[in-house]
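Design a sequence for this backbone.
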């Protein structure tokens, strides 16, 4: 039996963050797919604590039409010696993301339970990654969840300058070629902002989700074929 999260009405009245919409539940595939399809994602603090589920307001997104590629990034894409691959090393990408130091953070929200759940999502065809390789070594990547024509970026890492940005640009381009116009970035990080990311209201984001759900289904295989 699935342990469903408890949804919270008016979280601020309980002294909780406005973006927190539910607590508890499990990281099983059905719960995660339904959550992403509704604009909600987990952001746990510790595997020993109840899972926290968020729907930010405002929400970060990156539209392909607004994608900004700086001159230095263009040089890295053309002459940096990077090879881009899709879904060949998901386990390694999520492991690298979980151990990459984050400015202003002491630890990581990618807990062992999160890694296990998203590896299962990958095996079941809902989680995916784009990787950058250099001289046969994995040096950067981004992973996320693809549900109802919407890609929700979870995390990225780099071991070489610009490697994660190259992966993200490649992801945007293959999605666009297949017919996907934008990605969910959840938050607006400095990296996403530098690439043209923006903040929209929660309601605006939900409307985008509904439109994607109503459009003809774009299978992930069409996206990988675009590389």
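Sequence:
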């Amino acid at each position: 039996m699935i342990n469903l999260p408890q949804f919270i009405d008016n979280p601020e009245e309980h002294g909780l963050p406005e973006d927190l919409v539910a607590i508890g539940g499990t990281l099983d595939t059905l719960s995660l797919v339904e959550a992403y399809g509704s604009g909600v994602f987990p952001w746990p603090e510790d595997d020993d604590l109840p899972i926290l589920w968020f729907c930010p307001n405002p929400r970060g997104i990156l539209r392909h039409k607004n994608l900004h590629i700086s001159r230095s990034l263009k040089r890295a894409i053309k002459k940096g010696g990077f090879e881009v691959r899709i879904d060949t090393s998901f386990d390694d990408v999520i492991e690298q993301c979980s151990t990459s130091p984050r400015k202003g953070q002491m630890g990581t929200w990618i807990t062992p339970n999160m890694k296990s759940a998203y590896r299962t999502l990958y095996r079941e065809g809902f989680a995916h990654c784009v990787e950058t390789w250099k001289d046969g070594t994995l040096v950067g990547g981004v992973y996320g969840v693809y549900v109802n024509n919407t890609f929700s970026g979870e995390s990225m890492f780099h071991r070489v300058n610009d490697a994660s940005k190259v992966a993200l640009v490649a992801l945007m381009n293959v999605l666009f070629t297949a017919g996907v116009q934008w990605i969910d970035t959840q938050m607006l990080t400095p990296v996403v902002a530098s690439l043209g990311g923006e903040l929209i209201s929660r309601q605006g984001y939900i409307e985008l989700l509904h439109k994607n759900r109503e459009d003809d289904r774009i299978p992930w295989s069409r996206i990988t074929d675009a590389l």
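The chain has a mean pLDDT of 92.
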